Amino acid sequence: ECEMEEAVTxxxxxxxxxxxxxxxxxxxxxxxxxxxxxxxxxxxxVGISLDDxxxxxxxxxxxxxxxxxxxxxxxxxxxxxxxxxxxFSSPHLVxxxxxxxxxxxxxxxxxxxxxxxxxxxxxxxxxxxxxxPMPAYFAFLTVMSLHVFLKEKVDVAIMEVGIGGQYDxxxxxxxxxxxxxxxxxxxxxxxxxxxxDKIAWHKAGIFKPGVPAFTSLQQEAALNVLQNRAKEIGCPxxxxxxxxxxxxxxxxxxxxxxxxxxxxxxxxxxxxCKVWTDSRxxxxxxxxxxxxxxxxxxxxxNHTEVKTLPTAVTEGLRQCRWDGRDQRIHKTGVxxxxxxxxxxxxxxxxxxxxxxxxxxxxxxxxxxxIRILLFNSTGDREANVLIExxxxxxxxxxxxxxxxxFSTSNTVDATNLTVTKESQLNRVLANMLLFERLAVKKLQQxxxxxxxxxxxxxxxxxxKSKLDNDSLENGDNSQHTVCMIEDSVITKDFPCISSAxxxxxxxxxxxxxxxSFTEVPSKLRNAEHIQILVTGSIHLVGGxxxxxxxx
Length: 551
Fold this sequence. Notes:
By secondary structure, the protein is an alpha/beta fold. Helices cover 44% and strands 11% of the residues. The chain contains 19 helices and 14 strands. It has helices spanning 2-12, 18-26, 35-45, 50-55, 67-80, 109-125, 137-152, 189-192, 196-203, 220-233, 262-285, 311-318, 344-363, 383-391, 421-451, 461-473, 483-488, 497-504, 538-548, and strands spanning 58-62, 85-88, 100-102, 105-106, 156-160, 178-181, 213-216, 237-240, 327-331, 334-338, 369-375, 397-400, 490-493, 529-535. The strands form 2 sheets. Strands 4-3-2-5-1-6-7-8 form an 8-stranded mixed sheet, with helices on both faces. It has a 6-stranded mixed sheet with strand order 9-10-14-11-12-13, with helices on both faces. Strand 7, helix 10 and strand 8 (237-240) form a beta-alpha-beta unit.
């Protein structure tokens, strides 16, 4: 335990601090062109040459949404086919060792600790001068993943890109077996650019000459960029249609991860694995030089082909687990709906899943059910884009907190030095005020519609204007009791996840410190069951899972 903690504390010193990151953002990620050349040097200092990296049999996946799920499906499919899998992913939910999975299981604390000091020791020894920098946090973990996969002698290494693709640390890989691009959208815009085509340019940066590439269905602007870059780079690019619900025998193709988008991710994964297994079998059957027509193995997933899915593949899809994405954890008196959605499209998908899934659960419960939102958003994401669709979900209360576990401390795995506590708390307050403003706006629209048929006596005009003008302009938060907000939704902000959960669950969650919780409004009391949607940030979801335990 202690050794692992010591290792993670040391690892955290490699996180860029908030000031440094601000500088990089202002430069618009200009220094990032050096990322890959630097990565090659870091790997060499650890004793890993590019030839060693070439020996790993790699599936490389970029994308805005669903790249982690696509990789998780790939891992599960190939493991069910009997291969030894390595999977490098980010970010982690609870413990950093989750980023390195062998055969689907995070490496043990002991292994993590040994590999960590191994890699760190070699980097420190080769630091001849102050000019030789240490890698930043993600770059270090990427080098460590290569070290782990080589030592563990995996059959396949599934590498999920961190941010972008072109300048991502994982892009030192020069000969993957196959590349995939999952669904694209706007995220990390301060680094990758403000438009979908700029973002697509970065994501296509993982394409390599002659290496087959596949993409999920994309918006036209994104697809054009991917196709142009594939031509420039010289790689065949194929669009993969979504996975049908049934195979040609009429049997269900069920997925282990919920949510409608997952059928796109699963289809992409099936295709990537098909190319990988074909290439593997070809290597084994003919060790001589490969023939020229290397791209004939492109099997395109369409309705007629689905009958060819082997049992191991359908089992891999069905048994795939990927926590924190459309995940439900059910406890006595409270259910958690967890989804780390942090782009508009993924929030819309999350809402659709939550509405369906929570309604199904409510049918099974005889008493009153209340719904509560627990939200945070971080980085350069525009909170209003994420919050607006959530306002329409009819929550009984909305709760806001930073990605901090306890107001006194964080676990080492959840430590984030890239933002200051003060900036996190300011963001929480801004998110809450925004939610209130949008909720009031929605209420006013509804009242307008009603007012044509009846006069409104519930709220005095003076109170209305008071609320509209000062409290929302000046961020004055003392207006909570004004009937407009009372009518629309109860909002509350907290300094940490633990106190937010204690309040939201009304003390029903045994794993949060039973601190005395702030009085819960009568409107929320005496519910038979509480449904809590946790979304907006994958780190928030990870913090919640860390506290309540995953099922």
